[in-house]
Specification:
The chain is an all-beta fold and 355 residues long. It is built from two helices and 28 strands.
């Protein structure tokens, strides 16, 4: 896949076919995300490793007979177990003494932020060297985020706090603690205004979506209902809407500026026990949610109707990553408790290549 966008106007941009597998983790994959340019992806697993991949290149070491004798188009339409392996780039081990439940990568693809129980681990992508370990949370870290240039790292924890850490100094104490939540923080999302970190958006088990306006020093709290447990939040590419998923399987679409509910629908994915991630394709056409039965369900953003269901995982699929460029919105990655990550495309053979 070239760095520039492919011409996709005449193609169906709905992800539908398994094109490559991320094979290497020993145990469940808890987190997956793309780099900001979409060239790479990273995964975090129960095996206490973070792994870097090129999801649009097939591993030359993949030697299964059908990978040699079958065309790429045929491989992509075969069963998941026969799908070729994506190219592994690097494995990061230092600093992880517990399963990795959350990961992020900065906008320069130079620094990784990951969780190891109650500790935030910062790693140099190129050298693989451990840079920092930030300790202070009283509970497991559920979500992490990097600001532009890795100036600030953000972590949200089971202890109900969000902590901001200085990425430029050697100060090991948090520069700010956000403690408004009454229960576990399930997701943190950093919103940038150019090079400045403008907002931090969080979801909590207490049923609240909180937006921290760092420029004005204000907090807006949107309560989505009594006994509603929120899993995660994602924003549309234009920054106008938040999509929030909840433990009961509901999906909420809210206006970012006001918190007003624009749409609320009950998803068709299996939910109720696991924190399932949802995400939005870069063209803002689809919402994708993981499912406890191993599926990933794609919903039309406007109608809430199911467009298609991606099947193949054998255990809960809790992690979803959508390609950050709208012209590659047909590419997404799922991470599952079955230990596999899967790259899905619309079947266009130019998106994942045998090189």
């Amino acid at each position: 896949m070239e760095a520039s966008c492919l011409e996709t106007d005449t193609l169906n941009n709905t992800p539908s076919s398994p094109s490559a597998r991320l094979i290497g983790h020993d145990g469940p994959i808890h987190a997956v995300t793309f780099s900001h340019d979409g060239k790479y992806c990273i995964t975090g697993g129960h095996d206490r490793t973070v792994r870097l991949w090129n999801p649009t290149r097939i591993d030359p070491a993949y030697t299964a007979s059908k990978a040699v004798s079958t065309s790429l188009t045929n491989v992509m339409t075969s069963s998941l177990d026969q799908t070729p392996h994506a190219l592994p780039i690097q494995t990061y081990l230092d600093g992880h003494t517990h399963p990795v439940s959350a990961i992020d990568i900065d906008d320069n693809s130079s620094t990784l932020a990951s969780s190891s129980d109650k500790t935030l681990v910062v790693t140099d992508v190129i050298t693989q060297k451990l840079k920092r370990r930030f300790a202070g949370h009283a509970g497991r870290i559920n979500s992490v985020a990097c600001s532009s240039g890795s100036e600030v790292f953000v972590s949200g924890s089971y202890d109900g706090t969000v902590r901001l850490w200085d990425g430029r100094s050697f100060n090991m104490q948090p520069i700010q603690i956000l403690s408004e939540a009454k229960d576990s923080i399930s997701c943190v999302d950093v919103r940038q205004n150019g090079c400045d970190m403008a907002e931090i958006v969080t979801t909590s088990v207490d049923g609240n979506l909180r937006t921290y306006d760092l420029r004005l020093g204000q907090i807006r709290q949107d309560n989505l209902g009594k006994d509603v447990v929120l899993n995660c939040v994602a924003s549309t590419s234009d920054g106008l809407c938040n999509v929030v998923s909840s433990l009961d399987g509901d999906i909420h679409i809210l206006e970012c500026s006001t918190g007003n509910s624009l749409k609320n629908f009950r998803g068709k994915h299996s939910a109720g026990r696991y924190s399932l991630q949802c995400n939005i394709t870069a063209d803002d056409n689809f919402i994708i949610c993981g499912s406890e039965n191993g599926d990933a369900v794609i919903y039309d953003f406007t109608t809430g109707q199911v467009v298609t269901t991606l099947q193949g995982h054998t255990r809960p699929t809790c992690s979803i990553a959508c390609h950050p460029k709208s012209c590659f919105s047909s590419i997404l990655i799922t991470g599952s408790y079955d230990g596999r990550g899967v790259v899905w495309t619309n079947g266009n053979p130019d998106l994942v290549v045998l090189k």
